[in-house]
Please model this.
Amino acid sequence: MPQEVSISYQAVKSKVYKLIDAMVEGEKSEAEVQESMRRWWALIHPADRAVAQKYLLTVLEKTYSSLGAMTLDPAALQPFKPPREIEPGKLPKLQSRTERTHASGAI
Model:
C-alpha cells in the first residue's frame, strides 16, 4: 500500500508553491506539474480528499489573487534606462573632515 501524504493547509500550500517554483525555474513543464499533482492526489486517503480539495482551492485562489495584484498595466511599464555613466576623471572630489573644517574657518 502506498504511503499517504499529510493533509494540512501548510502542506498543501508548500506542495503548490514548490510546483510553481519548479515551473518558473524551468525545472518542470506544465505536463510534469500536472502529472505530479495526479500522483500527489493518488496518495491522499479518500476520506481526506474533501479537506485536501478545500485547501488546494483556497491556496490556488489566493495565488491567483496575488498574481492579479502584481500585474501591471503594460502602458505603465517604461523601458529600463541605465543611469548615465560617469567618467572616472569627472567624479566629484570628496573633502576630508579636516579639509571641511579648515575651509569653513572653524578651528
